[in-house]
Amino acid sequence: MKIGCPKEIKNHEYRVGLIPASVRTYVASGHEVFVQKGAGLGSGIADEEYVAAGAKILDTAEEVWAKADMIVKVKEPLPQEYPLMREGQLLYTYFHFAASEELTKACMERKIVALAYETVEDQDGSLPLLKPMSEVAGRMAPLMGSFYLGKAHGGRGLLVSGVPGVAPCNVLVLGGGVVGRNAARMAAGLGAKVTILDVKAKVLEYLDDTMPSNVFPVYSDPVTLEENLKEADMVIGAVLIPGAKAPKLVRKEHLKIMKPGAVMVDVAIDQGGCFETSHATTHSDPIYVVDGIVHYCVANMPGAYARTSTFALNNATIYYGKMLADKGYIQACKDNPGLKKGLNMVMGKVTYKPVAEAFDLPY
Ligand code: NAD
After folding, report:
1. Ligand 1 proximity of 313 Cβ (cutoff 6 Å)
2. Atom 3 (ligand 1) nearest CA
3. Considering the entire predicted model, what is its pTM?
4. So what's the ipTM on this one?
5. What are the structural domains, with CATH classification, of the chain?
């Protein structure tokens, strides 16, 4: 199969679909790999590294899209890329179709096959191609929160770890899933006193077994939430109800009971956010202040650490990508029901129910 990797063109997107190790895996299986010139630079990967792994470098995105049977990317195609998509071409990338009718219709018109990272499932129902980005965002959250606790940014002027003789910060993490447990571990490593709330007994049990002694897993209910909000210097929002908008756990009136200068990092912002006062921000303008509380709500947090994110993503995508390339998507999806869950569109026909329902399309 001919596999193509164009450069990402979304604003401030520095990740890339393939790393040299993935190229080598595809080439060793007899596939040809075409990478757009400079595609890896944002992640610190030079063209020569791709060539050494067996790829051919092409000058333009047009050439890559024209050559490839299968395109491996990070972000959904953008309008400039719509005309480059070809009938029957397999696109293996994040799509988040339900968030964009325009993208869905464009892909239908171009009759592509869309294998969406975000809906591929493991045997236990977890989402293996979303997980690496949740890990990155989770570990980032306390670092961002710590930075914006600085007085110059409107924060409380607190050093997360404290120093000998001065107490560390109280960090409150809402949701103990992938983001939450990575955030809690990082905050604990910085020396904070961490409380992590979740509604699932199994999650609380797991956290209790695995977290360091300065992390306290507690059942999430409105009373516990309010008690902890009063004490918190940093709040990290990491709740998810699959398929639904994030619940607004922290209401506007809660900000009044919080300490002025506390920082809220709403990682769940890509699902609408779990603080009522959240709205999406960008890496170039990441924070704003409401009622004295600093809000950090960047919707694509992993983009900031592109190299880590690119490698983490490839570690997960290559397993399914090789299956797709070796067997073709039809056989690969027959053999692996979890991979089949990623099939959102086949030759322009929507094959994933929530996407069809989102836009009232035939399914
Ligand atoms: P996850 O499913 O692993 O974890 C979510 C947790 O929230 C679950 O353990 C669930 O029990 C818990 N939860 C649900 N309702 C709750 C409540 N009322 N109180 C407390 N806990 C509750 O999901 P995840 O992978 O950790 O992702 C969390 C969010 O972060 C998602 O919205 C995801 O899309 C988002 N995310 C954002 C970025 C970004 O760049 N902003 C990056 C990665 C992930």
Report:
1. no
2. 177
3. 0.92
4. 0.98
5. 2-120+306-358 (3.40.50.720), 131-299 (3.40.50.720)
